Write a sequence for this structure.
DNA sequence: AACAAAATCGAAAACGTTTTCGTATAAATC
DNA sequence: GATTTATACGAAAACGTTTTCGATTTTGTT
């Protein structure tokens, strides 16, 4: 009934707990014979070390925490998958918490993970996060921290990102290349670095092509749970505000799909009347009609990379060998589809 | 540098560790004064109980395990969200593992969770799972186990499901109601109970409407990572095999969307030539063209319900009060959209 | 003042593991 | 045969908490 312990194995074999423990962990100072006996008995009794005791003793839990803004989300669930699959290879478990795009909640979740004493934390920031004391707390506790996608440049930790500015530039340039002259932008929330960078890439592409930058062509979406609705709303507003727009670069696929739905309803033809480029390459984008040109954002790889980096830092800290934060930039690509086919 | 312990608080106040512990946990046998002092010092020192020690002592980790076949999946990620949000309310953390639709992996993950000594496990079975010894192992260790969606009737544990047979019946009946005479079915893998039930519901609806059941109209998809491709492949095959089909009830939205994509490519009009009903109500289904009629499967609620049930059983076992397994059936609804609009 | 009852505290064991360090036995060396 | 050197084992402390139970002090009662 009760789980088997080292003590019971020791008693049955008439040896000490110490020796049993050593035998199971391949210590050199235990004879081949007793090691064999211990191993055998442990197997027949189905011995499983008590993680609680091991954790207490070793001060590590082989568990990491992951905090993300949303879960039901193609990009983020891809990242989760990447992290979990990589963590599994190294014998780590992953505790997932969501911030719901709320700073308060994010702070609470970090606290929770710290008091849970996870071995490291991976996070993508909530839109509302402007204060970083909770993250600095993690760092000052010498716990490895890796940020991805929605990062804060100011926090001194490793980061896994894409070159948002470059990707946005590419997307906008593509719209220019196919002949768009009046290009709008549905940007993300104000705070997140990546939504800023995408905006800057958009702006730079316009200027490099001698197209005027018109702030009234930039619309904001929070990109939270309501992304789709926001896309619809902005699309409608855009039509009311401007009748000459022939291209839009949109911060997120889901918003883009909302916009396309609205345009479709209002009789605006895509790509004939307006060309659209999204961002992230959600699976959905390849099956809607017209299919959506977008930037491929490698979620799965980002997850894997983030864990790999975290793992390195966990090892490094364990060996008392510091590690300077590293910024890893993954490649993206423009995926051309029907929404920009002239 | 080192985390604060009860001992340090005790030494600073010149009292015993016992009293500090009691003061922090509102034991009645500690005076108001000392409790105040302890509380205050604990706060200023930012004391956080060492979870490892607490776990070891109390034999519970306030952590549960979740095993699902896939993560990047609208339904499953909704369930994850439901479980996590409910677990949070009760102070539980969730460790997520994926089985990748593989029995071997599923077994390994369960083992992992057991050796991790989680307080309970929630699982949706892999397609390949036909042996249930790993699940019975969980039960025989008196660890609460709740299955959802893809369940095994034979395993004696609580389950959260929908009435798949009824839902499938409803879906098929709808096709009949709009005038379909020759209705195909893309079913799921052979083993999962829900794919069996959906098939049975389909079959019964045909017979109840005096339509012949033709086995050659039933196609199989594994519904794993390749769902979309499977849908395309089956659609193509169906057209080659039969030229008189005017309706299809499809096991999963993603497969249905694959099929629709293929039909679209081949010039088959939906719903004019063939009407389609999917299953699950993925968000995607509401934005593709034509929008997909489907069965709404309440993932978020399923997750919440599954955790609630698990929580009840964790409490029950703690109080040495057994609990007979409970089967909870959630409501579904047919969502009529363009793919069945005649 | 004597006693009972209540209030307050602490010693100690326990949870199960890991690891250091010492000791005893066996093997090797001269 | 005496000494060194491997080899094999175990005692014990430590990780930080919870909880039982006994001891002491204070309060209340007569």
């Amino acid at each position: 009934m009760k789980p088997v312990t080292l003590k019971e194995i020791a008693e049955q074999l008439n040896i000490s707990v110490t020796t049993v423990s050593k035998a199971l962990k391949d210590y050199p100072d235990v004879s081949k014979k007793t090691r064999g006996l211990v191993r055998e008995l442990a197997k027949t009794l189905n011995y499983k070390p008590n993680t609680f005791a091991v954790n207490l003793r070793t001060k590590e839990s082989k568990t990491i925490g992951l905090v993300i803004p949303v879960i039901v989300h193609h990009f983020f669930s891809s990242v989760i998958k990447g992290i979990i699959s990589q963590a599994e290879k190294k014998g780590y478990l992953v505790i997932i918490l969501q911030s719901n795009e709320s700073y308060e909640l994010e702070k609470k979740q970090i606290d929770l993970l710290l008091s849970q004493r996870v071995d490291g934390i991976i996070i993508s920031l909530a839109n509302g996060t402007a204060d970083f004391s909770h993250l600095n707390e993690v760092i000052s506790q010498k716990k490895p921290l890796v940020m991805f996608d929605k990062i804060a440049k100011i926090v001194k930790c490793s980061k896994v990102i894409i070159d948002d500015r470059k990707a946005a530039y590419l997307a906008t340039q593509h719209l220019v290349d196919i002949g768009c002259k009046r290009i709008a932008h549905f940007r993300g929330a104000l705070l997140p670095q990546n939504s800023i960078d995408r905006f800057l890439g958009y702006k730079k592409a316009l200027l490099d092509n001698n197209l005027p930058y018109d702030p009234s062509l930039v619309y904001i979406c929070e990109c939270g749970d309501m992304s789709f609705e926001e896309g619809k709303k902005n699309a409608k507003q855009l039509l009311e505000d401007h009748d000459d727009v022939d291209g839009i670069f949109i911060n997120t696929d889901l918003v883009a799909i909302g916009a396309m739905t609205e345009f479709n309803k209002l009789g605006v033809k895509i790509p004939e009347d307006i060309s659209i480029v999204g961002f992230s390459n959600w699976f959905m984008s390849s099956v809607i009609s017209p299919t959506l040109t977008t930037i491929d954002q490698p979620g799965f790889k980002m997850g894997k990379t983030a864990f790999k980096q975290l793992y390195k830092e966990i090892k490094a800290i364990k060996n008392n060998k510091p590690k300077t934060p590293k910024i890893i930039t993954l490649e993206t690509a423009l995926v051309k589809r029907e929404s920009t086919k002239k």
Summary: Residues 6-49 of chain B form one domain.
